[in-house]
């Protein structure tokens, strides 16, 4: 009996030692994360961040994975920034049914998250006497649930847009359409999600997914693993590749590129609404609008070139955008042009949104989210929550959920240079002007750096504060921003921005002007 007791005590002591060792070991051993998340979201664009923020309303362990060095680095940061009315997408399509449902949430979301939204209205214009195409758009919009559509004539068009061509005879007017700042929206959603408990991992690219014993094993960067009960694929232009990792290959992403031209701040002030031409099979056509901050924006064109990574711009395509827009707005001044950019749209082989649980239980595709993806994103997030609930995920409200996020910057008029010049080169102080063109202060940049998401590049600061978005495109403030980042983070920051590092070629103003002259467009 004594020998048995001694043996038992020896076993207990050994078990206690083993438990003590396990308690002090790191959770991540050899790249294997022991935690099992309730939901793993792949992709931190506008859709992934919308879903993450929606799910943070519940008592869940949520992981948001993004392969880039910041949120919103794909289509979210390179698009027309339009909050669409919801009349252009067929009522028989999912994207048609979700657009309006998303649009009507923007006012509330902006009040909560402060990312920048303005209801400006939109016009689809025609120079023809035939109004049938406009009537068909209006009929489709009504079927999508819209209640704010009307066909207006020349007199009403002049009241709304006195600077547009007098050749325009009719327009479809949608009162509730508008503009937003899409990259700021994704950042705001991500910040609020993180504040409410979501774990965000940047620079972690999903390289394989395996389901074992009802749990997904998600591998990132070919070495580190995470476990999750449910996986949401919101990987944008790579959603088909991620879906194939679990054996679901019933769609392809067929990338469609669109190029844009943006002009200096204030150039968009004469334009009061979002002005569209009649849509074609390739999309809504080239548009003319003022951004939320007052920059004139033209584009996009559309090209099905299959490129997923090349976001270079081409002078021939920009010149055609300029030519089409000039016919609507003859006061267009290319000397005010400051930047071009290309967005890659995640068009699916079904030509519609793909949202739903797949034949692999617990794996949910949210793919093919092309236009009107930003507008639809709040409704997409609602839909995904409902899908998860029906799939068996228990959704218990989080009583500590805080829906509010303070703004980093607010839209304000630029002050005359004489009023800011004495603040440009003073010693470090909250009121010091760091960006001369957009009049961004040191306090605003410091605030942007300390909101739960590490800002790893100068471009990341630019998207949060507009430092570098002005006339000189960062030539004055880039080094000043780096100095603040290095001071706050206590580490070296690469002063070149994302575009410069990637080797993407952007058409310059001198190239554009020279080409327009050669084509007799100037």
What do you see in this structure?
- By secondary structure, the protein is of the alpha+beta class.
- 32% of the residues lie in helices and 21% in strands.
- It is built from 16 helices and 22 strands.
- It has helices at residues 2-24, 46-55, 94-103, 106-113, 132-143, 154-160, 182-195, 239-244, 315-326, 373-390, 417-420, 442-449, 458-465, 478-489, 498-502, 509-518; strands spanning 28-29, 32-42, 62-65, 82-83, 117-119, 122-126, 149-153, 170-174, 178-180, 199-201, 206-212, 215-220, 224-233, 256-265, 274-277, 287-290, 295-299, 337-345, 354-357, 363-367, 433-435, 440-441.
- The strands form four sheets. Strands 1, 2, 3, 10, 11, 12, 13, 19 and 20 form a nine-stranded mixed sheet that branches. The protein has an eight-stranded mixed sheet with strand order 7-8-6-15-16-17-14-18, with helices on both faces.
- Helix 2 crosses helix 10 and helix 9 packs across helix 16 (509-518).
- The chain starts with a helix and ends with a helix.
- The model is unreliable at 1-33 (pLDDT under 50).
Helix-strand layout with pairing:
Elements: H1 2-24, E1 28-29, E2 32-42, H2 46-55, E3 62-65, E4 82-83, H3 94-103, H4 106-113, E5 117-119, E6 122-126, H5 132-143, E7 149-153, H6 154-160, E8 170-174, E9 178-180, H7 182-195, E10 199-201, E11 206-212, E12 215-220, E13 224-233, H8 239-244, E14 256-265, E15 274-277, E16 287-290, E17 295-299, H9 315-326, E18 337-345, E19 354-357, E20 363-367, H10 373-390, H11 417-420, E21 433-435, E22 440-441, H12 442-449, H13 458-465, H14 478-489, H15 498-502, H16 509-518
Parallel strand pairs: 2-3, 2-13, 3-10, 6-15, 13-20
Antiparallel strand pairs: 1-2, 4-9, 5-9, 6-8, 7-8, 11-12, 12-13, 14-17, 14-18, 15-16, 16-17, 19-20, 21-22
